[in-house]
Amino acid sequence: MLYRIAFFSSSKQLLQEQELIAILDQFATTVDAFDIKGVFIYLNGSMLQMGEAELEKFEAFIDLLKSDPRQTYITILSKNPIEQRIFSRKYLFYKTLDAKNFSGLSEVISTVFSPDYGNNPDNEMIKIVTNFFQDNYRN
Q1: Which of 71, 101, 120, 124 has the CB geometry, 3.0–4.6 Å to 9, for a possible disulfide?
Q2: What is the reported pLDDT for 66?
Q3: C-alpha distances in angstroms, 134 versus 36, 77, 79, 80, 127?
């Protein structure tokens, strides 16, 4: 059965662009192997990952991430069975959001989610992305 899972983690230190790209390159292969569709968002040392996959595959993926020494405090925010996918991408990717304004938020929502889902601000995943951005916003 497919599940939609959102989880938060923190990097042990603020990542530079090259370090973030190295993490994403490593995840890309793993995500393909687990058939996860979703998004990876990094902002000010915090990471939000949301995706959809078979439950066993997703749990194995999270267990693998827990062994990664570059991140800590992996916290599941949402874990629900689903009938169909909402993510419009076939792979996990990252979007560095502009920490000085919220313009990147609407771009992420319109890029990551299908139009029907992304146009409804009451949807759980939209709320999680919005809260993540607001909680990690810094001047």
Answers
A1: 71
A2: 87
A3: 26, 15, 21, 23, 10
